[in-house]
Specification:
By secondary structure, the protein is mainly α. The protein contains twelve helices and ten strands. It is elongated, with a radius of gyration of 26 Å. Residues 3-93 form the DnaJ homologue subfamily C GRV2/DNAJC13 N-terminal domain.
Length: 316
């Protein structure tokens, strides 16, 4: 569009709705309003300068627009979570199904999402800070809360935003594991997983753990396998193997109404023949049906690679 003003105005008149840009009639109106206010303020300032005098003589002052400090706030976009210039929901659920694979800086976005997740809720920060002062509380509050079915936590809006961050982290890692490299915040994520009592957050954290341990990256396969192995060692060294096994054991003893991913309510009853495969130790948790051919453990519908009685140590 450089130098092609006709094409620029045509593009500005169109609506755009993707991970990198939201532009519609509302944002155009907000831009027009901001420009009108800026122009009115500039005209008012010039009028003030025209009436200033020094010793009875008009004061000649050259005025100019300080465009470098001009900024537009778009209230209509406040409802959209934007991290690193990316609209997270549109990245995940937008019309472009390949948006995640096209990210130019996946590592920076992954780290920004992780930071945003930790900074989003004082409950998460308090949990991670408290855990940092102690040994990792492997079973901790999570397994107990699974068995007791407790909820609670932050307001719904904050929880939805946290889930968006976690979903985006998993999607980015699946597509760009080699570029992102080993996850430096695994210990924090495990602490959140250990302390949170919010089932949706916990479920998506488990999906993120699955992405970190077994990414589906088709590009740079060897790099993805290498970083997954490094993540496995980090999970094991941080007590993650014991945490996941304890969560599986606690959920195995739980029979309670649960909501499946499709939104239907069902009562979860875990039977011995479905909970453990012959010799595999795979455990089925609320809302999950496991067959004897299962190769991993499922926690709240999430299959965790390598978490079996014979291979629980495989995370390390």
């Amino acid at each position: 569009l450089r130098g092609n003003w006709g094409a620029l105005w045509h593009a500005l008149a169109m609506d755009h709705y993707h991970a990198g840009l939201i532009w519609n009639e509302a944002t155009r109106a907000e831009l027009r309003g901001a420009l009108a206010r800026e122009e009115a303020a500039l005209r008012s300032r010039r009028q003030q300068l025209l009436h200033q005098t020094v010793e009875g003589r008009p004061l000649v002052v050259m005025s100019a627009w300080n465009f470098s400090e001009f900024e537009v706030v778009y209230p209509s976009l406040q409802q959209h979570l934007c991290v690193g210039g990316i609209y997270v929901r549109l990245l995940l659920d937008g019309a472009d199904s390949a948006a995640v694979s096209k990210l130019p800086q996946p590592r920076e976005l992954f780290n920004s999402l992780h930071h945003h997740l930790l900074a989003s809720d004082s409950h998460l920060l308090a949990a991670t800070t408290q855990s940092a002062m102690q040994q990792p509380s492997i079973l901790g509050s999570t397994a107990v809360s699974i068995a007791e079915g407790r909820g609670g936590g932050s307001p719904q809006g904050t929880e939805e935003m946290q889930i968006l961050c976690i979903r985006a982290m998993a999607a980015v890692y699946h597509a760009h594991a080699g570029a992102v490299g080993p996850c430096e915040g695994l210990e924090h994520l495990l602490r959140i997983l250990d302390h949170t009592t919010r089932r949706p957050v916990r479920n998506h954290l488990l999906l993120l753990m699955a992405a970190l341990l077994q990414p589906r990256s088709a590009q740079h396969l060897q790099q993805a396998q290498r970083v997954a192995r490094a993540n496995g060692y980090a999970v094991h060294n941080a007590g993650g193997t014991e945490l996941l096994v304890d969560m599986a054991a606690a959920a195995h003893e739980c029979t309670e109404p649960s909501t499946a991913a499709g939104g239907t309510n069902q009562t979860t009853t875990i039977h011995s023949h479905g909970a453990h495969s012959a010799g595999s130790g795979a455990t089925a948790l609320p809302g999950t049906v496991m067959s004897s051919a299962a190769h991993g453990a499922a926690i709240d519908g999430v299959t965790m690679p390598g978490l079996t009685s014979a291979g629980a140590g495989g995370l390390g």
